[in-house]
Amino acid sequence: MQSKPIFAPELTIPNGVTDVEFYKNAFGATELRRFSNDDGTIHVSELEINGALFHLHEITQNYSLSPDKADGTTVTIGLFVEDVDAVINQAIQAGAKLKSPAQDYFYGYRQGSFVDPFGHHWQIQKTIPQTNE
Amino acid sequence: MNSYKAAIIPTLSVRNGAAAVDFYKKAFDAEELMCITGDDGSVVAELSIGGARFFLADESPEHGNFSPESLGGICIRIGLLVEDPDAVAKKAVEAGAREVYPVADQDYGYRLGLVIDPFGHHWEICKPLH
User: Fold this and answer.
1) What are the backbone dihedrals phi and psi of residue A45, each rounded to the nearest 5 degrees, phi first?
2) Domains assigned to chain A
3) Is the N end or the C end of chain B the one with fewer CB atoms within 10 Å?
């Protein structure tokens, strides 16, 4: 068990989804567990990206919203990786839409962002040396 | 340089970011790592809950970032894995979060409870059962 707190966000997906290959293709995610409905559609999928845990959860309550319908989101997923450009390129090839290309920022990050096929916003980043701008 | 392989650091969009910073400090013993206040009073802050870092920002609809209040719901629930979910949830409720259901052993392998904070974000406070 982990001793320090960690975030494991739960991303809303629409009802009726069966295909979440995007997360495997884009991030090399591993699906740890899946809870399916009787018709084979996904209720919950538990995924891991190189040690970072997250869940996909179908809409079950009226307060959970699919971000593609909202045309925006309430939470952006920041993902720290070794190679920002490679992860973004792979995600775009897997079907994500580029929001902001990878670039170095003076505050000490290389960052870029995209919107995944379910409408979730991901910011891919790593720390770099700060510059005095 | 950080040693994480892949780490998830969420950014929560809120209305009244300054008040949200205060709330998360009280509710989760969050430590303020960084806070930038714009000319209009809008805030971008980086906080840490016992080493779990997250960002908090006033909503910016022009970038597709909405507070739960603006959307009337949430697109992502915040799962927070901690050692003692009972104590963490209790403190959050004392600070003003609303309990949706109490922390209890769930059949899917977590001890977990759900609270909604005053800014509309949903927190699943949990730990794996084994």
Assistant:
1) -125, 130
2) 10-61+74-127 (3.10.180.10)
3) C
Complex confidence, ipTM: 0.90
User: What is this structure's pTM?
Assistant: 0.92
- The answer to whether A74 contacts B68, with C-beta atoms less than 8 Å apart, is yes
Q: Residue B62 in 3-state DSSP?
A: helix
The string of pLDDT tens digits covering residues B68-103 is 999 999 999 999 999 999 999 999 999 999 999 999
* Residue of B15, B46, B77 to mutate for A, most A C-beta atoms under 10 A: B77
User: Is the Cβ pair B72, A6 closer than 8 Å?
Assistant: no
Domains of chain B in sequence order: 11-60+70-128 (3.10.180.10)
pLDDT, tens digit, for every residue of A24-41?
A: 999 999 999 999 999 999
Q: Residue B82 in contact with residue B50, Cβ under 8 Å? A: yes
Closest approach of B124 to chain A, Cα-based (Å): 9
